[in-house]
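Entry 12.
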Amino acid sequence: MKDLHSFGWYASRITPHLSKDFFKPVPARLWGGFAYLLVVVAGLLAIGLFDLHIIINIVIAGVLGASYAAMGFLGHEILHGTVVKTAWLRNFLGAVAFWPLSTGPRLWRKWHNMNHHVHTQHDEKDPDAWPNHEKWIQNSLLRTIYRLPFGVRAFFSFLSLSVQFSMHGLKMFIEYIKDFNPKNRPAVLLQTVLPWATWIGIMFWMGPVKWLFAFLFPLLIANFIVMSYISTNHRLNPLTPVNDPLANSLTVTVPKWVDVLHFNFSYHTEHHLFPSMSPKYYPIIKQHIKKMWPERYHEMKMSNAMKALWNTPRIYYKDNELIDPHKKNTFGTLGNGLDGAKQPDPEVMKKTV
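Predicted 3D structure (tokens):
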């Protein structure tokens, strides 16, 4: 593994080349969120008030799922303070944006901002890092899962993307609620429970069948979209003892119109260098990174990154490899045998230990 540097080391070398305006909040980003909110309200009312043909309900469910995911991307941006700086307004807008994904702003800032960003891909401290071989040995459930044939395991792993964000959010609530000051715990609990109470209340209003199209199916779609990004953000990168975003993060490339719809969420290495900067400016940050450290920067087409995820296990071996523990096959990570510029070939990536 190349010599590692902290995200501050990189940021300090790029910052002199940037305008001070890059570090100001961009409240105009809220117009996109307002558009999505109108779409969501219209979709919910259409399903709730009218007896529509099932095909129309399916289409609306797809639009709602895509909208729920996009609102989550904006909520992530808001809660980093890049849209508005006023704390109460930031938390309120972040709560609204994350409402479909039922994630409270206090929990998100604790889990994501304070732990994931500070300790990215640290095998003990990053709440989003996948386990290493030693943890696999100690976990009977993981050992059972990894006895399944590779293809079956990959299929169910991809299928689970449709629930992973919601399940991980619940795990983070259980894990971190004790870390909050006792006087703040009721607010954290309320921010977690209230969105679910709202969606359950909507079920009683429109009935369980319509609710499937208004919330449950869209939630599965939103989970899959969000987790497709989150899974490719770091899970092909090595574990790192130093929080080096050029080593432990991946920027995926998607069509420009997708970046517009998803608020530039694909620029993930850039985000880990400048988490308090609006993603509006990340294409420019990308240019600076590729000019200064082209040999360190990792980017990959989203389709290729998803194929690489399918073709590799998620257990780390010696930090910079992934291992299929029963067959003893190891696969390179980005910067350690996996080339983000090429179509992933599982036979090339694989070796036996």
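Annotation: The chain has a mean pLDDT of 94. The beta strands are 251-253, 299-301, 315-317, 321-324, 329-332, 350-352.
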